[in-house]
Specification:
InterPro entries: At5g01610-like, DUF538. This protein is about 20% helix and about 45% strand. It is α+β, with helices and mostly antiparallel strands. The chain folds into two domains: about 10-105, no CATH class; about 110-140. A hairpin with a 4-residue loop joins strand 8 (about 80-85) and strand 9. It starts with 7 loop residues before the first strand and ends with a strand.
Amino acid sequence: MGLLPKGITRFDFDDSGQFEVQLDQACNAKFESELHYDRNVSGTLSYGQIGALSGISSQELFLWFPVKGIRVDVPSSGVIYFDVGVIFKQLSLSLFETPRDCTAIRESGDLIRDGNLLAISMEKNSRAKVGYKFDQERFERKGKGSYSIA
């Protein structure tokens, strides 16, 4: 069963059914829709379902929803349900026959750093535009090709 992607580095499981999986990196895998896996995924296994799930999100349109649980009611139906809070997303069980390759994603720290660089760049660009506008206002056009300082 390929509910989890390739790249598992550690798997812990206790008698109560609680498990924790560590991946080599946070990543996304494509099924019918995109699934995001945090570096750490945990939950509770019981017959036909995984509850108290954390570390997996599902993309719907442009929004990401945390997957709170996964269940299979009737294995012969070929249907698996993902609890994304407001609905149970129904997928074909055959999508999960083998673990998927997972595409690495950037860590949030990288995004914050890039966001800061973007803000600094925008600030510098804004100063340049203001300076350019100020210089343009200082010069009056006196006809074709000639300018004077105001």
